[in-house]
Design goal:
83 residues; alpha+beta; Rossmann fold; two-stranded parallel sheet; 23% strand; elongated; DNA binding; Resolvase/invertase-type recombinase catalytic domain-containing protein; DNA strand exchange activity; Resolvase-like_N_sf
Length: 83
């Protein structure tokens, strides 16, 4: 006679990750403001679709180069808030 032992499956609960998003455009012109709105909408939609993501905040700067932190006030705020 064969003896079968059932091993129960462990329920792996998916951990929710709280995230912040930083979006930026380098010029304060209509075309780039539209791009910024698309960036923000993308991450908000993503957080609504993926249940493991809790979107805490969306930070953004307009008319700021990505080369330096100077002048990127929302970027700096995101870093401080994350600490």
């Amino acid at each position: 006679m064969i003896h079968v032992v059932k091993i129960p499956v462990k329920n792996k609960t998916k951990e929710v990750v709280r995230i912040a998003v930083y979006c930026r455009v380098s010029k304060n012109v209509e075309e780039q403001r539209s791009s910024l709105n698309i960036q923000i909408a993308y991450f908000k939609e993503l957080s609504n679709k993926v249940i493991e993501i809790d979107l805490a905040e969306v930070y953004h700067d307009v008319g700021r180069s990505g080369l330096r932190k100077n002048g990127r006030t929302s970027y700096k705020k995101m870093i401080v808030d994350g600490l």
